[in-house]
Fold this sequence. Notes:
Number of strands: 30
Oligomer: single chain
Radius of gyration: 23 Å
Strand order of the largest sheet: 4-5-11-6-10-9
CATH class of the largest domain: Mainly Beta
Amino acid sequence: MSPLTILAPVLLVLAATPANGLAMPKVDIDANQSSRATIQSNHSNGFAGWDADAHHVTIALDKQYVPVTRNNRTVMYKSAYFGTILVGLPNPQSFTVVFDTGSGHFLVPSSKCLSEPCATHNNYHRNLSSSGQDVDHDGIEVPWDTEERDEVAIAYGTGEIVGEFARETACLNDRTGESSEVALRRVDCVRVRTIFATEMTTEPFHAFKFDGVLGLGLAALALDPEFSFFGQMERTNPLMKPFFGVFVSQNDSVASEITFGGPDPRRLAGELQWADVTKPELGYWQLKVRGITIGGEPLDLCKDGDCVAIADTGTSLLGVPRDAAQHIHWLLARTVEGDPHQVPHCQQHPGPDIVFDFGDFNLTVGPELYSRPAGLKVVNATANETELICRAALLPVEENEALGPKAWILGEPVLSKYYSTYDWRQKKIGFALAVQPDPETEGPPRHKVHGAPPAEPPTPTVVNI
């Protein structure tokens, strides 16, 4: 799922012509695992001997805060993380993209795009690239000056993009001056079918600082395997190990990161605990959840072990099944004692833990990660009473035919506490408590933060009853 808050973007191809686990006791991955661990070789395709100097690429991610407003006031912020990728050779064109495990395509704006959002973002210029190859949706090459081209329409929540197809060379490092043939012998470059947007709706794309999206969902989310960026990397680049790892920083002074080729041991506070992806043919990094407790009490919704959870680097909230969202909100709400006119910071106010049971290990999410910063002030004029309440920030997940009614999304609240590693070949996800570095030891900033909110918490929302 992308920051555009929709799982499984809807794709419609518009043709130019009519178509004819680990065997070990359950563990809690928590602060008690404080010792820095080596990567475990008991994973059957493990990282034993993984060397920080081996073939891997780490990209620092910029961060953008996107305000969520109600009645002309900001009540909370969502966030997006994005890094740089370069497209085309020998003169690479730079784009910022969200590395999104919840979608399956690589897309950036085209210079053909005249929509308002394209005017404020970097555009791909086909005439500057010697490595580009114009194709239709089925991968068949077409002349660059063909007027009638196949297009794809992709719906992202409240917005949509329309784009054309090309086969291009994309690199994670700057390979200026190199030919595509030379660059493709390096660890960081890949040949991939790309979508170049010719139309983008103002909402929501104009508000975002990033140019495009690089989908890291499994290959089934893509129109064709050749559209899958990491699928192509794993299949065609023998230097790239079939893993990538994600670190989400809890401090804006420290860059979040994505590492291609394996996890970054510097960011691990314990051993990686692995879970198999269930139903990889759906394309999601989806795990089977054995059970969920809130405040120590089992959640009836998942008591039969049939809930699923999707690890999604493009979602800034914890996603919960829509039909259960109201009940879960109620379970996570808590009253703030004391002066009802105070301005509480609800992320610092005690509350129940949410614990996900994945069989061999648990993941725990506390109120500091799932809460809205602002409180809710409930004023009962009849009784002359005022109550302050802290609430969770949850994303309702719609039921669909593929995922069913019990799908959760492990967005930023989970991924900022736990380092996540994705095994493309064996379809597994590994989790370990993340090391949150001291900003003083990280050196000069390698990233930018856009739209950071004020340090003080927002004033409570007032509801009169």
